[in-house]
Amino acid sequence: MNNSRQNREDDALLSAYVDGELGPQEADAVEKRLAEDERARLLVEQLRRMKEITGAMRIKDPPREEWERFWQVHYNRVERSLGWLLFATGGLVVLAWAALSLINAIWNSTALPALVRWGSVAAVAGVVVLLVSVVRERWHVRRTTRYKDIAR
C-alpha cells in the first residue's frame, strides 16, 4: 500500500511538471528522474498528449431552447420546493395542534381509567416521534444522495 501511495505522489509530481507548476529545483529533480526512469518518461509523454488533446477541446454552447428549458425547470423546482415547504410546515402545525388537543381531551377525561389515559398519551407521542423520524430521515437522504439528478 505504501508503494501505491508513493506512485500516486510521484504521478502527481509528474503531472505538475507537465503543467509547469513546479519551481526550478523541483523541475530539475524531475528532469534528472526522467533521464533514468522509463516509466516516468512514458507517463510524462502520456500526460503531455492528454494535455494537448484536452487543451484543444471546446465546450459547445447548448441551443437557446435548451437554456430556456433549463431555466423553466429551475423555476419550477424552486416554486415546488417552496410549495412543499409551506404545505409541510402548515401540516405539521395542524398535526401538532390536533395531537395536543387529543392528549388534552384524553388526559382531562374523568371517564377513562388512568392506565388508558397514559396509554393513549404514549400512543400519540409514539406516532409523533415516528413521523418526525421518518420526515427527518427522508430529508437527510434527499439532501445527501449523490444520484438525485440522474435521469433513469
Q: Quick summary of this structure?
A:
This protein is mostly helical and 152 residues long. The protein has helices spanning 2-18, 24-36, 38-56, 64-108, 114-144.
Which keywords apply here?
5 helices, 152 residues, elongated, mainly alpha, 2 domains
What does this structure look like?
- The protein is mostly helical and 152 residues long.
- The chain has 2 domains: 55 residues, no CATH class; 81 residues.
- The protein is built from 5 helices and no strands.
- Helix 1 packs across helix 3, helix 2 crosses helix 3 and helix 4 runs antiparallel to helix 5.
- The longest helix has 45 residues.
- The mean pLDDT is 85.
Q: Can you tell me the number of structural domains?
A: 2
Helix content: over 70%
Q: Main β-sheet: number of strands, strand sense, barrel status?
A: none
Rg calculated over all Cα atoms: 32 Å
Provide the succession of SSEs.
HHHHH
Structural class: mainly alpha
Question: What is the β-strand count?
Answer: 0
Average the pLDDT over all residues and give the rounded result. Answer: 85
Number of helices: 5
Terminal CA distance? 37 Å
**Percent of residues in beta strands?**
under 5%
Spans of at least 5 consecutive residues with low confidence:
none
Gross morphology = elongated
Describe the protein's topology:
Blueprint: H1 2-18, H2 24-36, H3 38-56, H4 64-108, H5 114-144
Helix pairs in contact: 1-3, 2-3, 4-5
